[in-house]
Amino acid sequence: MSPLFTAFLLLVARASAAPLLPGFYSETCPEAELIVREVMMKAMIRERRSVASVMRFQFHDCFVNGCDASMLLDDTPTMLGEKGALSNVNSLRSYEVIDEVKEELEKVCPGTVSCADIIVMAARDAVALSGGPYWEVRLGRKDSLTASQEDSNNIMPSPRANASLLIDLFTRFNLSIKDLVALSGSHSIGQGRCFSIVFRLYNQSGTGKPDPAIEPRYREKLDKLCPLGGDENVTGDLDATPTVFDNVYFKDLVAGRGFLNSDQTLFTFPETREYVKLFSKDQLAFFEAFVEGMIKMGELQSGRPGEIRTNCKVVNSHRPVDVLLES
């Protein structure tokens, strides 16, 4: 399925799907948001990087056929899931944190809280626990009955993507240039692999030379971290304060210290540069735009039949009539 047609279906579905609501579980599972937050806090204590990984799940889930937790499904004999997609394999991690949240929720409110909603709540808490904004999330999503590695490969951008490609992608989902730049600020926390940047360091655009946009001293640092022919699974910080959600990410872009090509290009392209400059100077403006973008992205729905999985990695066992009743 083409990315453009997928985006069209998501926008149609968003207009026709049941509305998402704040406090959706206030009666059926009033402790839901507290349980998610407590598990996220424990995960953060155990490994600080894990919350940054979980935060990115919302983007990787919602852009591929809507926010339906399809990205959490394991492969089956008849289905290649999204965990093995190009943008996810050896990149996304900490799936076990979502599994821990689901396990705790099933103890208290069995069969009630969807994995798709867990992703959205966990992403919000990852930001807040790292020093960023806290916002009220809209809930009520269903979990998908399938996943598509092909759709993920066709939709999700590469770390090599430039701002023009990213603008086109976000526009398809009715997300603005401001949303693109603000949501890219998710890279305020976490790390990236050398695999994602070696081309920038040694062969940008096939020139056999480094990306001229990289600040020279920062390039020397990256050269040491990611030598040509070295271990491409070594990780580096995405900004100078990788455990704190702040606007230092944008300050780094202005200074030529963006880790990923898809980050630095936001400053080199005139269409996105002004928002980078604004957010580098005004952290509150960044926080407000980020929250707005996360809420808009969280509204993407496919309109397909769904369920409340009891295990986020596999679909429930159904008779055909059961699926129809839950759609």
UniProtKB/TrEMBL annotation:
<protein>
    <recommendedName>
        <fullName>Peroxidase</fullName>
        <ecNumber>1.11.1.7</ecNumber>
    </recommendedName>
</protein>
<dbReference type="InterPro" id="IPR002016">
    <property type="entry name" value="Haem_peroxidase"/>
</dbReference>
<dbReference type="InterPro" id="IPR019793">
    <property type="entry name" value="Peroxidases_heam-ligand_BS"/>
</dbReference>
<keyword id="KW-0479">Metal-binding</keyword>
<keyword id="KW-0106">Calcium</keyword>
<dbReference type="InterPro" id="IPR033905">
    <property type="entry name" value="Secretory_peroxidase"/>
</dbReference>
<comment type="similarity">
    <text>Belongs to the peroxidase family. Ascorbate peroxidase subfamily.</text>
</comment>
<keyword id="KW-0732">Signal</keyword>
<comment type="function">
    <text>Removal of H(2)O(2), oxidation of toxic reductants, biosynthesis and degradation of lignin, suberization, auxin catabolism, response to environmental stresses such as wounding, pathogen attack and oxidative stress.</text>
</comment>
<feature type="domain" description="Plant heme peroxidase family profile">
    <location>
        <begin position="19"/>
        <end position="316"/>
    </location>
</feature>
<keyword id="KW-0408">Iron</keyword>
<keyword id="KW-0560">Oxidoreductase</keyword>
<dbReference type="Pfam" id="PF00141">
    <property type="entry name" value="peroxidase"/>
</dbReference>
<feature type="signal peptide">
    <location>
        <begin position="1"/>
        <end position="17"/>
    </location>
</feature>
<dbReference type="InterPro" id="IPR010255">
    <property type="entry name" value="Haem_peroxidase_sf"/>
</dbReference>
<comment type="similarity">
    <text>Belongs to the peroxidase family. Classical plant (class III) peroxidase subfamily.</text>
</comment>
<keyword id="KW-0376">Hydrogen peroxide</keyword>
<keyword id="KW-0575">Peroxidase</keyword>
<keyword id="KW-1015">Disulfide bond</keyword>
<keyword id="KW-0349">Heme</keyword>
<keyword id="KW-0964">Secreted</keyword>
<dbReference type="InterPro" id="IPR000823">
    <property type="entry name" value="Peroxidase_pln"/>
</dbReference>
